[in-house]
Amino acid sequence: MASTSQPLRGKRACKKIFWAVFPHACFILSLVIYAFLGALMFSHIEGNRKVNLSEEYRKFLQNLWHISRNLSDNMTENEEIFREKIHELLNGAERDWFVNPKDIWTFFGSLFFCCTVFTTVGYGNTYPVTRIGKYLCMLYALFGIPLMFLVLTDMGDILATVLSKSYNEFRKLQSKILASKFCSGFICGKGDEVKSRAQSKAVTNEPLTIMEVLKSQPGVKKKPVKYRNVEIFEMLIARENEHTKLARNKSIERWSSCPELDRGKTMSRVMENFDKIGKQLEKLDVPIVLMVLVIFVYISCAAAILPNWETRLDFQEAFYFCFITLTTIGFGDTQLEHPKFFLFFSLYIIIGMEIVFIAFKLGQERLIVLYKKVIAFCGEKKMPSKKVYPK
């Protein structure tokens, strides 16, 4: 029986892990599929568009021809005028006149554009030109941005749990170190031995006897026999209730061996996982300085790696680019020569945006607390003092 129960337990544990991970994987997979479908759509629409030579393009070529023809043989005299006219002429030129759409709207280029749309970065160096492409871009953003925010909220729960547990473990370790320093010169008494024995028995699930419980509670000894017996009776009832609860839990676990009940229980747990999205993020309470340090280290790691394929960027420019990207500002002043390599950092962008979002949320909560304190302080200052009238 033991050999057959172990594989069943292993299968049940795998099922629990699968259904626990299923909501998170479902959101991320939906976002990936949505990005790939958008890349196929925009690469087909914008990449295959026909380039029509407009009237503005003809005027541009005509003006350029006139400037080059009116140049005199003495270049030094007209050099400044030539530069001003050329600069003014090139400022009015459009990039689409000199670039083939198929070179911009490749699959990876379109995928990069889709990522900038639903992450609300919007660098501005790649944008739809056709009317159909503009309409589809609005429709694509309408559904893609909520999906991205849902993924960010879901990932935020995971990051909030990791950060809160790490911070709590650090605080516990710090308190233990301080407690060991203070208690190193003292000797524990008999009461500590009883407490340690009770804790060790609680850990090993061994029930304590009533006498041991009474010995660990000196307040019971001072009471009369009548009240002491009443408390002993209440303790016995409490222990009996605990045993009945444990028996009920075991019976429920046995009932779960029925596949129909087990399937219904699993589905209810999956629904609860969907309902709990965003709850852990609301409970997060860590210092804002710690989050700023995490953001600085996170961006610095990417800024050290990015110049390996973007040779025009140094560490400072890469740090600036990553910060503008993760905060979804996206000026577009820094352009990448190889955006398809940056797509491999899509998970980095999602996690980084989530870390920045958590930092902004914590900063928002701290600002609200600060405003409340300022308003309360101003209210106390302006509160009129109560006058005491003689009777």
Automatic annotation (TrEMBL):
<keyword id="KW-0407">Ion channel</keyword>
<comment type="similarity">
    <text>Belongs to the two pore domain potassium channel (TC 1.A.1.8) family.</text>
</comment>
<feature type="domain" description="Potassium channel">
    <location>
        <begin position="294"/>
        <end position="364"/>
    </location>
</feature>
<feature type="transmembrane region" description="Helical">
    <location>
        <begin position="104"/>
        <end position="123"/>
    </location>
</feature>
<keyword id="KW-0812">Transmembrane</keyword>
<dbReference type="GO" id="GO:0015271">
    <property type="term" value="F:outward rectifier potassium channel activity"/>
</dbReference>
<protein>
    <submittedName>
        <fullName>KCNKI protein</fullName>
    </submittedName>
</protein>
<dbReference type="GO" id="GO:0022841">
    <property type="term" value="F:potassium ion leak channel activity"/>
</dbReference>
<keyword id="KW-0406">Ion transport</keyword>
<feature type="transmembrane region" description="Helical">
    <location>
        <begin position="135"/>
        <end position="153"/>
    </location>
</feature>
<keyword id="KW-0472">Membrane</keyword>
<dbReference type="GO" id="GO:0005886">
    <property type="term" value="C:plasma membrane"/>
</dbReference>
<dbReference type="GO" id="GO:0030322">
    <property type="term" value="P:stabilization of membrane potential"/>
</dbReference>
<keyword id="KW-0630">Potassium</keyword>
<feature type="domain" description="Potassium channel">
    <location>
        <begin position="103"/>
        <end position="159"/>
    </location>
</feature>
<feature type="transmembrane region" description="Helical">
    <location>
        <begin position="318"/>
        <end position="336"/>
    </location>
</feature>
<keyword id="KW-0813">Transport</keyword>
<dbReference type="InterPro" id="IPR013099">
    <property type="entry name" value="K_chnl_dom"/>
</dbReference>
<dbReference type="Pfam" id="PF07885">
    <property type="entry name" value="Ion_trans_2"/>
</dbReference>
<dbReference type="InterPro" id="IPR003280">
    <property type="entry name" value="2pore_dom_K_chnl"/>
</dbReference>
<feature type="transmembrane region" description="Helical">
    <location>
        <begin position="286"/>
        <end position="306"/>
    </location>
</feature>
<keyword id="KW-1133">Transmembrane helix</keyword>
<feature type="transmembrane region" description="Helical">
    <location>
        <begin position="342"/>
        <end position="363"/>
    </location>
</feature>
<feature type="transmembrane region" description="Helical">
    <location>
        <begin position="21"/>
        <end position="45"/>
    </location>
</feature>
